[in-house]
Amino acid sequence: MTPRSVDGDNRVAVASDWYARMRGPEAANDRLAFEAWYAVPENARAYREIEEIWNTAGRSSLRKQPADRRTSVRWKPLAAVAAIVLLLLGVSLLSAGSPVLPEQAPAHVLALASGDHERRAWGLADGSSVLLDGGGALAVEYSDAERRIRLDRGRARFVVAHDAARPFVVFAAGTRVVARGTVFDVAAGDTGAEVTLLEGVVDVSAANASKPATLNPGERIVAKDGRAGIRPVPAATARWTEGLLVTQRLPLGQLVAEANRSPGARIELADPALGALKVSGTMRLGDPRLADKLAATLDLAVVREPGGIIRLQARR
């Protein structure tokens, strides 16, 4: 075997590992590393070969080999790798202690929730996964006809496995999202919902809307008070799963609300009017010095109070 073929086998093995990881419960946390690896053309080619194996396996059987001998030779080792991927997927889901939903069972509801300052991930039996931000709650209801999620509060990232026969539908604050093998975020608030698409395609039906709106990657729809509007979002928005927030003239009030989802001291604004101040930059939400950095940037004063409260106020 030549050094080149050894390298090729290693690349396929790594691709199969990535395929398993991106369909496991920690997929959202690994996505940025995956995208960096996938940016190498040879890696992307190996990954697409693994996808081809699984797509074909879903339509028919791997026993139906192509007639062309060269294609058959290429598929034999890949088919073996695909079997390994299946094992990896099973291990990743079970080792995480994730609740697994039966694929062919009567519909039932499973409630999932995260603590105020924690993010939790679950793998689902169809190969999808969900990452729930701090203080979130959702309900999962799978049936033979539909995969339904109800996001009651908080924010979640969904990595959806394709299943044309069973739509993956998320309901949040009067908004309905239908996904087709995709990656997207949904946030449910008191007055509406936000849907941000990272990969694939989703159809979003807001309350009182005459027809669904289709999102493309890099777009967000904000449904609030019966109105909805689509706007572009920076790619780095996806990094909330790492505890990072990338902002461009974000109101301070929104930034503080994001920061208070993370573990650590709670930040409050002494005057609600301060919430309109604009902040730009990349911030780590769990940074214990975040309030001091914001104060220095915006020329505010920091007051530390008992109970871990940090108050930002105008300088006297």
From TrEMBL:
Ranges in coiled-coil conformation: none
InterPro entries for this protein: FecR, FecR_N, Ferrdict_sens_TM
GO MF: sigma factor antagonist activity
One Pfam family of this chain: DUF4880
Transmembrane segments: 78-97
Gene3D superfamilies: 2.60.120.1440
Domain FecR N-terminal, residue spans: 15-52
Limits of the FecR protein domain: 113-202
Keywords, ordered alphabetically: Membrane, Transmembrane, Transmembrane helix
Protein name, per record: FecR family protein
Organism field: Sphingosinicella microcystinivorans
